[in-house]
Amino acid sequence: MTSLNEIKLPVEKHIAEFEKKFRESMKSSVPLLDRITAYLLKRKGKQIRPLFVFLTAEVCGGVNETTYRAASLIELLHTATLVHDDVVDDSNERRGFFSLNALWKNKVSVLIGDFLLSKGLLLALQNNDFELLRIVSDATREMSEGELLQIEKARRLDIEEDVYFEIIRKKTASLIASCCACGAASSGADNDTIMKLHRFGELTGIAFQIKDDLFDYSKSLETGKPNGIDIKEKKMTLPLIYLLSNSGWAEKRRIINVVKNNNDNPQKVSALIQQVKDCGGIAYAEKRMMQYRDEALQMLSEFNPGPARDSLEKLVVFTTERKH
């Protein structure tokens, strides 16, 4: 599998320049804010979102100043939602670092999230980037709706496959879709091209999330046992939904009872994971993931070949073959 560093090559200098500009965009006159944003910048992840922005811009005509603002806008709004998520989930850790609420408590964390949100809005408005703002605001709304839909459906647990796809389309795929649409819009692409790349990002994002769901059924590096974290958190993912839809009424009740009332029992969770594997739930989820991936790659083949398109193709493949 191609490494992320290789995938970055066509836009490497843009990513480095973006990091400088992004640091600038977070500056404030309040020392506490600067201390916290410096901490946030230290824990950056794989940079997959900016990568989608810059590669789609290159495919559509080239990176310019608007592209840097597009990537900053997405990172600011996305970081704001992550900070708020950690408060909502009462989470003390993210990517191996303490979360903001673990270090500075909830009130400060919520205010930091609001600050980042306002920074993103102002960055777009000060430069009349109304199209970028529309795309990213749409994604933020969809992410909130996806979270709320998941909370609502989690109470019943017996969800249909189409509801699951609606949840992940809104919660995860809408963000990658907005990266691709913003990259295209920043380079001056027409509306049809922007919509096409939005759909490309959506398909890639759905495949990305199914891959995430599958990690729950693979062995943890520390313990050698399946993770089962989603089951512990009562999240209905595609392999489990497949098992439920292929079970009789009594068996369905028993499975839902394990997820609802015995999700902290390692033996029962382990047995349920084995049952999902035996019924073909993993194979089914992998097949669906590949369908979305192939549809995304097919859409990409309509664009002019070149190093940026090659890297985008590799990035789509990376999202479905990554190890974590």
Give the amount of beta strand, in percent. under 5%
The CATH topology, please?
Answer: Farnesyl Diphosphate Synthase
Shape: globular
- Tell me the strand order in the biggest sheet: 1-2
Query: What is the overall number of helices?
Result: 15
Number of domains: 1
Series of H and E elements: HHHHHEEHHHHHHHHHH
Task: Let me know the average pLDDT.
Answer: 85
Q: What's the total count of β strands?
A: 2
Major sheet attributes: 2 strands, antiparallel
CATH level-two architecture: Orthogonal Bundle
Structural description of this entry:
The protein contains 15 helices and 2 strands. The protein has a two-stranded antiparallel sheet with strand order 1-2. A hairpin with a 2-residue loop joins strand 1 and strand 2 (97-98). The chain has a single domain (4-321), classed as Farnesyl Diphosphate Synthase. The protein is mainly α and 324 residues long. The chain has helices spanning 4-8, 12-25, 31-42, 48-60, 65-89, 100-126, 130-154, 161-186, 191-215, 229-232, 238-245, 249-261, 266-278, 281-300, 307-321; strands at residues 93-94, 97-98. The two termini are 13 Å apart. Mean pLDDT is 85; it is low at 220-225.
